[in-house]
From TrEMBL, chain A:
Keyword Protein biosynthesis in annotation: yes
Protein family membership: Belongs to the eukaryotic initiation factor 4E family.
This protein's name: mRNA cap-binding protein
SUPFAM superfamilies: eIF4e-like
PANTHER family, per database record: EUKARYOTIC TRANSLATION INITIATION FACTOR 4E RELATED, EUKARYOTIC TRANSLATION INITIATION FACTOR 4E1-RELATED
Gene Ontology CC, one term: eukaryotic translation initiation factor 4F complex
Upper classification of the organism: Eukaryota, Fungi, Fungi incertae sedis, Mucoromycota, Mortierellomycotina
UniProt GO MF annotations: RNA 7-methylguanosine cap binding; translation initiation factor activity
The gene coding this protein: TIF45
Amino acid sequence: MAQDNLAVPSGDNKYVTVFNDPVNFNAKHPLHNSWTLWFDNPGKKSNANNWEQSLKELITFDTVEDFWGVYNNIMKTCDLSISSNYHLFKQGIKPMWEDPANKHGGKWSIQLPRNKTMSEIDNIWLYTMLACIGEAFEHADEVCGVVVSVRKAFFRISLWTRTSDNQDVAMSIGRTLKKSANIDGTLEFQSHHDSSKSQGKAWTV
Amino acid sequence: DIARTVSAPAPLSSARIENFGAVSYPTGIQSPINADPQGKFRYNRDFLMQFMSVCTDKPESLPSLEALGMDENDRRSQSSG
């Protein structure tokens, strides 16, 4: 927050970025948050109800460079098998309702028909993640994480929020998500509490 | 300890950039334009996309695709879903 002049190299001794020298760079672009990528494919296990066991924490990163190193070395969404999910959450938040950060929250989500979205889903998911790591959201502290789910008939994109009782905040996040990820369609917001029961009132963007 | 890391830059020691004024990007590379006045690191999509083709090395701590049950067979067996 305060100027930290100690951290600035003096004279010609500047940072060498990956653009200046892709091999011998000495400085990376920090992210505001550390993010953890999770993957699960419960459908592959015989006991599909044990979801938590199939959930795998892949890696945590906190720089732009490391994000891309991860992204470029995992499967694209369009190549994942049915019932798989990627979850990108802030470090320390588990991608499940029970986590204290999610408990009172909700999610924006949209189901995109598989046949119509196959060619776009990789970019939609990528842009969703970039909006998170780049801190595109005005109320960024409200964002817990994002999920892409691969299903037989659709892909679902979800963004999980920390709270679910402030419509202005929720709407702002929903609008930014829709715009950032080039999503064509209507996103719906529901609190986790509502969606675990019957239909609650839904906000849409 | 950030200062300590930056004051002795060695190849691949990869310090975290603290001051974008001290970075000179090559011609054709867009600088981060929405630097946040509150010292928060914010990057727009166009800026971030520039790294896509440059940062391709697999992080050492990333599990293999096989370990994740994400092998190439998935890709083939699933063509027209």
